[in-house]
Amino acid sequence: MWSVAEDVWVMGHLLLLSLQDIRDRELSFAVLLEFLGTGLICAFVTGTEVCLWPGMTLLLLAAASGEKIGYGDGWLILGMGMWCSAEEIVSVLLMGCVLCTGAGILRKEKELPFVPFLTAGYIAGRYLL
Questions:
Q1: Where are the alpha helices (DSSP H) in 1-129?
Q2: What share of the chain has pLDDT > 90, as a percent?
Q3: Is the pLDDT of residue 112 over 50?
Q4: Please, which of 67, 84, 95, 96 could form a disulfide with 88 given CB 3.0 to 4.6 Å?
């Protein structure tokens, strides 16, 4: 039962942040902080291990690339580390990158909002694979 509630919580945040990313090309830091904070509290209460390295790596890449990768994407992955295992996060990132690259090639665009592709990767990994 708790797993379903967690999954709904993560999916709801991913969908909300996807819409923000498509519309505004930026993510609400308040929503990201709330996602991260509730995940940290949940992990503490349940004794679940958190996974920080994918999010921290993405935040460092955002800084090193002059924000070609947005800080919001790094904060989102950091928040997902409170809810998902390292394997799940890496899988979501890889699927998101493949989908985003494919869409960029098909649409002949170099800059696309990334969170919708992360959301698609999460859905694919959770429900289709």
A1: 2-24, 29-46, 53-64, 71-83, 86-107, 115-123
A2: 86
A3: yes
A4: 84
Domain total for the chain? 1
CA–CA dist 12, 58 (Å, integer): 22
Section 83-95 average pLDDT = 94
Over residues 67-79, the pLDDT tens digits come to: 888 999 999 999 9
**Average of pLDDT values for 95-116?**
94
Pair of tokens at residue 2: 């708790």
**What type of residue sits at position 118?**
L
Residue 16: give the domain boundaries.
2-128
pLDDT for res 110: 87
Predicted structure pTM score? 0.92
C-beta pairs of 69-75 under 8 Å, 24+ apart in sequence: 69/114, 70/26, 70/27, 70/114, 72/17, 72/21, 72/26, 72/27, 72/29, 72/32, 72/115, 73/27, 73/114, 73/115, 73/118, 75/27, 75/29, 75/32, 75/33, 75/36
- Residue pair 56/78 in contact by the 8 Å Cβ criterion: yes
